C-alpha cells in the first residue's frame, strides 16, 4: 500500500482535508433529525452520543439522547441520578437549546404499546400473561424491536429537533435494522399462524379446530415446553391477534425513517485493528441497507507534542546514554583501582616509607575523593531517567505509527468515508466538562488539542 506524501506518519494527521467529517455542520443542519451512533463494544459510543447531544443542545437545538446500552455512564456524565424510559432534562447546559436523556426500558416500552393499542380488558389479560412477561423481559430480538418502537415514538411526537441514538455494543448494534424483518418472519411463521387460527375461527369451532388440527403438535410441544406454557402462548397469541399487524406496520415505518435523508449514521471506532475491522463491516452493512452514512468517528487517537523526534532517534539516544553511563562507571572503578595501586606502590618506591612519620598529608587530602564521588552519585540517575523518558517517547511514537497504518488500511478500503479524529483525553469522561471537551475534539475533526492528548 502506497503511503500518502501529504501525511506524516509521526503526526497522525488525516489523509485529505476534503474527507474530514464536519460534525458542526451535521448538527446545525435543521434537516438532520436523527443521528445513530453504532460500532463495536468499548470504542466510546455512549460518550460520543452524549457529547454530540450536548454540543447540539449548546448550539441551540432541542435534543434527546436515547441509549440502548444498559451501562449507566450516560446518566453519570450528564449529572442525572438515573435514566429510565422517560426523557429527563439535563441541567447546566449552556446556550439556548435543551438536552434530554433517556435509557430504553425494553419491558416498559412493550407494555406501553400494549396499553396504547388494546382495550383495557385485553391489555390487562396480555400484561398478566406469563408468556408475555417472559417475551417482554428478554426474548431474543425484543430489545432491538423495542428500540425501533421507541425511536418511532420519539420521532412521531415531533417534540425534539434532534434524536441521538446510542446503540448496543458489538455487531448486534445493527440488529435493530433487522428487527422488522425478523418480527415479520416470526408473525408469518407456521406456528404463529396455527396458534392464531383458533382465535380467528372463534368459539367452539375454534376449539374444535385446535383440538383436531393441533393434536399431534400440541402433544409434541407440550412434552417439550410443558402444557401450561403452550396454553400461555396460545392465550397470548389470541389476545395479541389484533396487534400483530400494528407491530409490523410501525417497525416498517421506522425502518424507512432510518433510510430517510434526515437520518445520519456515525460509525464509532478506535484506531485498533479489530475495531476498524468491525467499522468496515458496519460501513458495508449500512451501504447494503441503503442507510445514510455520515462518516466515521475515530475515537481516542494518540498524538505527541514532540513528533519531530522519531522512535528510532529516541531509542538511539537512550542507548547512547546507557553506554556512556556504563563507560563512566568502569572508568571510575579503574581510576579508583589505579589510585589504590599507586598508594600501595608508593611505600615500596619511597625510601622514607618504612616507619616514616615525617611525610605530612595535606589537610584537604581526605576530602578530595568526595567531590568526584558525589558527582558520580548524581549523574547516573539523571541519565537513567532521561533514557527512560526517551524509551517512553519511542513507545508512544511506535503506537502512533501503528495507529496510522491501521487507519490507512481502513481509508484504502473505504476512501469515500469522511472521518473525524478525536484526540484521547488524559482521563475518563465523567461530567459535562468532559463531554464538552469530547465535543470540541469532534468538531475539530483532525486537529483537536495535541497538547492535551493522552
Automatic annotation (TrEMBL):
<dbReference type="InterPro" id="IPR016300">
    <property type="entry name" value="ATPase_ArsA/GET3"/>
</dbReference>
<dbReference type="InterPro" id="IPR027417">
    <property type="entry name" value="P-loop_NTPase"/>
</dbReference>
<dbReference type="InterPro" id="IPR025723">
    <property type="entry name" value="ArsA/GET3_ATPase-like"/>
</dbReference>
<feature type="domain" description="ArsA/GET3 Anion-transporting ATPase-like">
    <location>
        <begin position="32"/>
        <end position="302"/>
    </location>
</feature>
<feature type="compositionally biased region" description="Low complexity">
    <location>
        <begin position="350"/>
        <end position="359"/>
    </location>
</feature>
<protein>
    <submittedName>
        <fullName>ArsA family ATPase</fullName>
    </submittedName>
</protein>
<dbReference type="Pfam" id="PF02374">
    <property type="entry name" value="ArsA_ATPase"/>
</dbReference>
<feature type="region of interest" description="Disordered">
    <location>
        <begin position="326"/>
        <end position="378"/>
    </location>
</feature>
Amino acid at each position: 500500500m502506497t503511503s500518502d506524501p501529504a501525511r506524516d506518519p509521526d503526526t497522525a494527521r488525516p489523509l485529505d482535508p476534503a474527507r474530514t467529517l464536519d460534525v458542526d455542520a451535521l448538527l446545525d443542519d435543521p434537516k438532520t433529525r436523527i443521528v445513530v451512533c453504532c460500532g463495536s463494544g468499548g470504542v466510546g459510543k455512549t460518550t460520543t452520543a452524549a457529547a454530540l447531544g450536548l454540543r447540539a443542545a449548546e448550539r441551540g437545538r432541542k435534543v434527546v439522547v436515547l441509549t440502548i446500552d444498559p451501562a449507566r455512564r450516560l446518566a453519570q456524565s450528564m449529572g442525572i441520578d438515573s435514566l429510565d424510559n422517560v426523557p429527563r432534562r439535563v441541567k447546566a447546559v449552556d446556550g439556548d437549546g435543551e438536552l434530554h436523556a433517556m435509557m430504553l426500558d425494553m419491558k416498559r416500552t412493550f407494555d406501553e404499546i400494549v396499553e396504547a393499542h388494546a382495550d383495557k380488558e385485553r391489555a390487562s389479560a396480555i400484561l398478566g400473561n406469563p408468556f408475555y412477561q417472559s417475551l417482554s423481559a428478554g426474548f431474543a430480538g425484543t430489545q432491538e424491536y423495542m428500540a425501533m418502537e421507541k425511536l418511532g415514538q420519539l420521532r412521531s411526537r415531533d417534540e425534539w429537533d434532534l434524536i441521538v441514538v446510542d446503540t448496543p455494543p458489538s455487531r448486534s448494534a445493527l440488529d435493530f435494522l433487522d428487527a422488522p424483518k425478523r418480527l415479520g418472519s416470526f408473525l408469518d411463521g407456521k406456528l404463529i399462524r396455527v396458534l392464531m387460527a383458533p382465535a380467528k375461527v372463534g368459539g367452539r369451532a375454534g376449539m374444535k379446530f385446535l383440538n383436531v388440527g393441533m393434536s399431534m403438535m400440541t402433544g409434541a410441544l407440550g412434552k417439550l415446553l410443558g402444557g401450561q406454557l403452550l396454553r400461555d402462548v396460545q392465550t397470548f397469541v389470541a389476545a395479541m391477534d389484533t396487534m400483530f399487524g400494528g407491530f409490523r406496520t410501525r417497525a416498517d415505518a421506522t425502518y424507512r425513517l432510518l433510510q430517510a435523508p434526515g437520518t445520519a449514521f456515525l460509525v464509532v471506532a478506535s484506531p485498533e485493528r479489530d475495531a476498524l475491522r468491525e467499522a468496515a463491516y458496519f460501513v458495508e452493512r449500512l451501504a447494503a441497507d441503503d442507510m445514510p452514512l455520515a462518516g466515521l468517528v475515530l475515537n481516542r487517537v494518540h498524538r505527541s507534542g514532540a513528533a519531530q523526534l522519531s522512535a528510532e532517534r529516541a531509542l538511539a539516544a537512550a542507548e547512547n546514554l546507557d553506554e556512556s553511563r556504563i563507560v563512566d562507571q568502569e572508568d571510575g572503578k579503574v581510576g579508583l583501582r589505579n589510585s589504590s595501586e599507586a598508594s600501595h606502590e608508593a611505600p615500596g618506591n619511597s625510601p622514607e616509607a618504612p616507619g616514616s612519620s615525617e611525610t605530612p598529608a595535606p589537610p584537604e587530602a581526605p576530602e578530595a575523593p568526595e567531590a568526584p564521588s558525589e558527582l558520580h552519585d548524581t549523574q547516573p540517575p539523571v541519565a537513567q531517567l532521561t533514557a527512560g523518558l526517551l524509551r517512553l517517547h519511542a513507545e508512544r511514537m511506535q503506537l502512533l505509527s501503528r495507529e496510522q497504518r491501521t487507519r490507512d488500511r481502513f481509508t484504502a478500503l473505504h476512501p469515500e468515508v469522511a472521518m473525524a479524529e478525536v484526540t484521547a483525553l488524559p482521563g475518563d469522561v465523567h461530567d459535562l466538562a468532559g463531554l464538552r471537551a469530547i465535543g470540541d475534539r469532534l468538531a475539530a475533526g483532525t486537529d483537536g488539542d495535541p497538547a492535551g492528548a493522552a
